[in-house]
Structures are given as C-alpha cells and as structure tokens.
Design a protein that fits this description.
This protein is an alpha/beta fold. It has twelve helices and twelve strands. The strands form three sheets. It has a five-stranded parallel sheet, sandwiched between helices. Strand 3, helix 2 and strand 4 form a beta-alpha-beta unit.
Amino acid sequence: MKAFLCAAVLASCAMPVFGEDFPLTITHKFGTTEIPQKPIRIATVDYAGADDLLALGIQPVAYRYWYGDHAEMLWPWASPLLQGEAEVLVGALDFEQIARAEPDIILSLWSGIDQNEYDQLSQIAPVVAVPPGVGDYALPWDERARIAGRAIGLQDAVDAKIASIEQKLAEVAAAHPEWDGLTAAVGFVSDGVGAYTETDVRPQLLSSLGFKNPQAVADLAAPGAFSVRFSQEDLSPLDADLLIWIDAAGNFQPVEDLVARPFLKAAQDGREVFMGKDMTGAFSHASLLSLPYAIDRMAPMFAAALDGDPTTYADDR
C-alpha cells in the first residue's frame, strides 16, 4: 500500500529534474501551484506541520496547533527549536491571522482543507496541497516531507533526514527479523473503540518494521478511510499478534474498562503495548523530529510485548 501511495505521489508531482530550481510548479488535488522563487517566509496549516520545518532549521511564520498542552503548543521534540514569534493557528483556519504572517508559501499537505479554504489561502500566498488521488491524511511521512522540501528549496536536506530515519527503522527491523509478517493493530478508545487502517501513517510506519495491518481491520474500512470503529462487545478485529493502544492524554482507564478486552488473545498473552501521552504524540505526528524519538522508544516496547512472557512489558503503564 505504501509503495502504491509513493508511486502515485511521485507521478502526480510535476517538478523540474532538480527539485530546488525555481520557478517551480507543483500539481495537487486542487490544480497546480507555481512558486516563483525560493520561499523565505513559510507558513504551514498542516497538523504537526511545524515539526518538519523546524527539523530543517526553518522558523515557520505561522503553524497550526493540533493537540496537547506543551509550551508554544509544540511537543518536546520540537519546542526547543522554535525561536522568535510565530502566528499559532488554533481551531478553524483564521485567514486574516495567516495573512498577517505575510508568508511566501503555505504548506497544506496534512490539513484536510477543502476547495473553499484552498481558494482563500491562495489569495494570501501559493499553496502546496496533497497530490491528486491521495487522501488528505494518507500521505506517507517521507513523501509529506519530500514535497515540503521541494517546495521550499531544501530537497537535499530533507533527503538526508529521511535517509537517517529509514536507516534507524532498518536497524530495528534487522535486529528483530521475527517481527516480519506479524500483524499489528493500533487501537484507541474515543467515542467508542476504533483502529487505524493501512491508509494511516501509524500502520504505514509499522510496516517498515515488518508488521502487517490485520485483514479484519481492512475488511471494515470504507475506501480511503484512515480508521474504523466497531462494537465494544466485539473487539476481535483488534486481536493481532501485537496490539498497540494509544491515548492522547495517556489515560489507559478507558482501555482497561473494556469488558471484552480480557477475551482477546493478545491481552491474555501479554502482547499489548500501551503508549502514553508523549509516545502517542510522537507516533501520531510521524515527523522528521518525532520519528527518531518514537522509534528509539517503541522498539523495546514491542520486544517486551512479543517476548513470550505475558508478565513483562516496557511501555507507558
């Protein structure tokens, strides 16, 4: 699935041979955008969009708050890198606030904007949106970073960051060949019980370590959906070789209160991983900054859950 998405992205991005040549034309779901020269003042309306910019040494003039209660409305891997003032976008997009930042370009690759919002943003600055044929939140983490890197003239720097993360993932996968082919479900309890599909960045990331998303989850998903929901009385779609529970607040009580959870083989065998607030954030942001943080911590969590001993764990419980 990830390979297909990457191919679709690359095929649909009309760019010069040298990604840092300007003017630059980028094709996306709303049409085409021309970037006349290398942008200096960069805004992002993406959820977690500040992360990739800060990883590249770029200070965004405007960025979007997603969730959490950290300083500067950024997470621990990002906030120390922020310098100076920036417009912080909270809730629905405030176009006047974005215009005040006087951006040269607006990145919108993981934002869910619609045609009307795109049109209004385009009156402020050139907008780079998700490529044609790719869902609003289905762009793999590496392609999201690559497109942003091309758009702002930092292709080489982005490629180096991606290569470093891919190397880290490869090292973890090589150290655990026994994971290859195992199923891994990413579940959550929020307005019911749900799981993420292979369209979502979290299962995509797990696939880099050899894991497969459960077929039972895929069977419940509507075309292009990044998550599914199901009855609390039947949690069987989650009964994978590895069951990962995430919670944005680090509150595991709703999971522990699930009446059907003790009947899951994954729960009985101790093959569950509970990710707390910061790990859930790092796993979900899937950015150039958060992924090194997440990978270093998730590897021992998975190893302990899959060691055959139901009494051992190394997660956030």
